[in-house]
Amino acid sequence: MRIAIVNDMPLAVEAMRRVVLHASAHSLAWIARDGAQAVERCATDVPDLILMDLIMPVMDGIEATRQIMEKSPCAILIVTASVGQNSAKVFEAMGAGALDTVRTPVLGANNGNGAAALLYKIDSIGRLIGRHGAQDASQATARPGTATPAVPLVAIGASAGGPAALASILAALPRDFAAGIVVVQHVDAQFVQGLANWLGTQSALPVRIASEADQITPGTVLVAGGDDHLVFRDRVLLGYTNKPVECNYRPSVDVFFDSVARLWRGRITAVLLTGMGRDGAAGLKTLREAGHHTIAQDRASSAVYGMPKAAADLGAAAEVLSLEKIAPALVRTFGQTSNNPSP
Q: Is 186 a catalytic residue?
């Protein structure tokens, strides 16, 4: 891949340059010292991937990501040294269209992990860009159960642009929303807790990371956490599995949707939001073919119209809705605990 670096710190630029050039499959497209320069360079030379810093003079990484995705769209990976202090900015950049985030590597003999983490993210995005088919989700670990849950379920998958889209949907749901919600968002494991905390500030619903053996509760939002895939282990309990091992994204939306289709016996609406690639499209189709209601976000309101487009192309979406219409549709379907529609 041709990779561009956007960062105002010379040592950080050099560290990333070495990582890029260390792999024979990658080359350096160009370097920009701030977001404004990056927007200008992209107008004439669009790389395959941009390694984008967050905090820069003239124009920060959030605004640069927003403008690039509007004018010269390409894959963007946020690379920042101050992850913990900038969680909200990270999610804002992802809402503007960035795919993922990772810590900035530093020069030095003890930087093996930082360089490896960056290279792993670069290679993962490279596979995603070049991928032509959805992941096979048939290997999700599950065991048969006997209980039949009465709680309805909203299953949501999202990637680039997802945090902002999720915040918009959750903010529009009532405190006594009658369905349980499970979210699979493509995000590095180190940011999941920050994502859950941030979403919790945007919504009247409680938001937390899904734990092993968790159960669906009305009006509660569970977010997939860690590097393993979230699945239903039986007809009641959630859990995590490392299979399939070879997967462009961990956690995978397809893997979760597949486990929902096979094991969940309550009412289901599945929603596929903004994101690059095809993850979730095949799983959404499986759910629709099983008789469940499915929704894909429309092109106009998607930060990146990849995953929902793949779903629409497959005929996986019973409805294609703008972002602002998704929450009202969910409320109409499931209602509130004081006035829940009959199955």
A: yes
